[in-house]
Write a structure and sequence with these properties.
Length: about 475
């Protein structure tokens, strides 16, 4: 430790290098073990905190001691989202190339709140969003070269909140930011009964009030019913209310349903309603040319469109990409200009200051992990990964079709399958338990209609054909 100056907090760069070398074997072993370990942690609530000292050390601990506690105390409490048997919730893939980018970004410790506070962070992010826009076939209206643009948010939940606030301010002429929530009276937002809970959360936080969120029914494939949406908006407008924001989901959390975005857009435009597309999980599938038409349908009519590279695409958490058709809508709602952040580049108006694109001020250099991932892996391999995972899901789908007791609870969506037992919820629960106690596979559930349903969300980087055959084998005993 370089405490010869009496400044024990300082480290020489060589010390970091040697510490990184020292932890590399642990990292390699950890990643290598994903194959053999149980995806779910076996610890009980409180086990980990009981093993941690109640107070912090006053003097340094050795790296050896820290690494030994990492192995003995922390690692048993890790859930292995990277296990080949991971099919729970959605994938949260950290591709090695993005891990490398993330490490580099941490080393560089940039604060990208203003162009001036990190030109590299700002301009690489702008370019990465445009690379992805092109790779996914998203429309020109989201390009920075026009009135649009893209930004990396931490999560899709933050993205929908930012867009809701932008729509709120656009609809009220900036009144709520200025005068407070009374001016929100009469504003109404819309989403389907399958939309992600982040929408209800955002509506509460943004002062719209959850009772002013209209939850629109879905059709027999769990897609938002555009006729019911039109009826609801017409009724609200007739009653003197102000429809202002609607979420369409491309790949719902439950069963991956894809809302009819084109039809929804027509309804929204007739009421001047902001349409936000939430493609948090399914958006990545647009890298695959065969899946693209379904994923980006109607995107050119949306005011905002979001997906999470930190789910399926392999960008280590957190990384959520948001495109907006008129960046001014977002920046005028979020911009605040304190003296201590003033600078010539901002005053000249020629630069992007990403602090104006979301709630927080400080921001990480997240574009770095996209840059390294896209350059080292390439778009084609990522598209191939999507096609491969979809093929795996089809393999499982075929096995379910010939199973005596199991059936699909909804049509397969991309690499997501929803399955139930023909004898009802108790029997389905037993199958869930068999899978989740196998110490090999992890799945989660949802409810579709009245039924408990098992979700098989295939897409972990390590999942292979042999894993699908093994789960088919496990299911054959159910
Ligand atoms: N939207 C959809 C459709 C989701 O499935 C999820 C999470 O699974 C989210 C939003 C929330 O994502 P985040 O954790 O990035 O907020």
């Amino acid at each position: 430790m370089s405490d010869d100056t009496g400044m024990a907090w300082r480290r020489r760069p060589e010390e970091l290098t040697s510490d990184i070398y020292a932890v590399l074997p642990w990292i390699e072993q950890h990643l290598g073990r994903a194959n053999g370990c149980s995806p779910w942690s076996q610890v009980q609530p409180g086990d980990i905190s009981a093993s941690l000292p109640a107070s912090p050390p006053n003097t340094p601990d050795s790296l050896d001691d820290i690494m030994s506690d990492l192995s003995n105390i922390i690692a048993p409490g890790l859930v292995r989202w990277d296990a080949p048997g991971w099919m729970a919730w959605f994938p949260s893939n950290a591709h090695p190339d993005s891990i490398l980018g993330d490490l580099l970004s941490t080393v560089m410790a940039q604060q990208g709140m203003l162009w001036m506070s990190s030109p590299a962070c700002t301009e690489l992010e702008m370019r990465m969003l445009d690379w992805l826009r092109q790779a996914m076939g998203l429309p020109e209206c989201f390009a920075e070269s026009g009135q649009g643009g893209g930004v990396i948010q931490d999560t899709a939940s933050s993205a929908v909140l930012a867009c809701l606030v932008a729509a709120r301010e656009q609809c009220t002429g900036g009144q709520i930011n200025r005068d407070g929530p009374e001016a929100a009276a009469g504003l109404v937002a819309y989403c389907s009964d399958q939309a992600h809970s982040s929408m209800a959360k955002a509506v509460g936080i943004a002062g719209i009030g959850r009772r002013n969120l209209r939850v629109i029914p879905t059709d027999d494939r769990y897609r938002l019913d555009a006729i019911a949406l039109r009826d609801a908006m017409d009724r609200d407008a007739h009653n003197g209310l102000r429809p202002f924001f609607c979420v369409a989901t491309v790949g719902t959390t439950g069963c991956g349903a894809i809302d009819p975005v084109e039809e929804i857009a027509t309804v929204c435009s007739s009421h001047h309603v902001w349409l936000h597309v939430d493609a948090a999980w399914a958006g990545t599938a647009s890298l695959s040319k065969s899946q693209r038409p379904a994923i980006i349908a109607g995107a050119k009519h949306a005011q905002s469109w979001c997906f999470n590279p930190h789910k399926w695409m392999g960008a280590a958490f957190d990384c959520s990409c948001l495109w907006i058709a008129r960046r001014r809508d977002l920046t005028s709602a979020m911009s605040i200009d304190p003296e201590y952040l003033r600078n010539d580049a901002t005053d000249d108006g020629d630069v992007t200051d990403y602090r104006d694109w979301h709630v927080q001020l400080g921001r990480r250099f997240r574009a770095m992990k996209l840059w390294v991932l896209l350059r080292r892996t390439g778009v084609r391999a990522l598209a191939d990964m999507i096609d491969f995972h979809i093929e795996l899901a089809k393999r499982l789908e075929t096995a379910i079709a010939s199973h005596q007791h199991l059936c699909l609870a909804a049509p397969r969506s991309l690499s997501l399958l929803c399955v139930k037992h023909v004898d009802g919820d108790e029997a389905t629960q037993r199958v869930l338990d068999v899978i989740n106690t196998s110490e090999r596979f992890a799945v989660t559930h949802c409810r579709l209609g009245d039924s408990l349903v098992i979700r098989f969300a295939i897409g972990a980087l390590a999942t292979d054909t042999s894993d699908i055959d093994e789960i088919i084998n496990t299911l054959s005993t159910c």
